[in-house]
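Collaborator request, handled under Task 6.
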Amino acid sequence: MNNAVKKPLKFAIIGVGLIGGSLGLCLKRALGNSIYITGLCRTERSMQHAVKCGAVDYASADLKEVAGAADIVFLSPPVLQIVPMVKKLLPYLSPHTIITDAGSTKGYVWQHLKEILPENIYYIAGHPMTGKEKSGVDAADADLFRGKAYVIIDDTEAPREVYQRLMDVLKYTEANFVRMEIAQHDRCAAVISHVPHIAAAALVTLLNRSGDDLESCIKLIGGGFKDTTRIASSNADMWADICMTNGGEIARNLRNLQTILGEVITACDSHDRQYIYDYFTASKKRRDSLLENAAKEKIDPN
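Structure tokens returned to the collaborator:
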């Protein structure tokens, strides 16, 4: 009889912030002692809090201590830091380690990683479409992924059995997994996520540029402005990187948005009430149908 005790899965989180911390909380809740989670943190305070809140079993600023002998490495820094981080990681990784990430853009990362990864280290690109306007492990939530779309990229050359190894762990997030190719992901993310964040920041910028009316405008702020601009409170470092790594798709869709706003401007200037009415009617109908479909599919759009 084989009485050998199975070793716990070693799962390394590089960047124990909102996303990384939430994943750690979720996996520890689901898997308990059958998973051992290590986390890379920059400050002593972050290390202490990551361990205390239960997001990781062990935290350190030492990359070798965190990633050495890991079965799966989950990368959650800003996008432009992912490739340099992988270069630092490679000397410490064991054969057959899986690298995955939470980066909001995929083409840039894969373009660079495929040039440096050895054949026995696998990269499976991922993007959990979730978050909060707050960042850091203090904001981590074990239920952050539940019901949310989680993109898994098909075309990073990892074998099917490697995908399955990763999904056997990520399934505990209870996310709605969506398979996409890299180019399609970056196109869709620009429309659904990247441009809306830029637009929210633009509305806040518009308020800031309201001149002598600024103080009066601030007194009128209510739920509409608060809800529409909520995501403008997101991490600036992260969003600067997103714009640098998916700039082509973001610019293309911003131009499309610019065209739409130009049409509305023309209708307002010409007092074309029918155009404005149709504009709001069509957008309401489309949004309502999206929310109805999300409810039927048990997808959380919040």
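The cover message to the collaborator said: "DSSP finds twelve helices and nine strands in the chain. The radius of gyration is 22 Å. Please let us know whether this matches your experimental observations."
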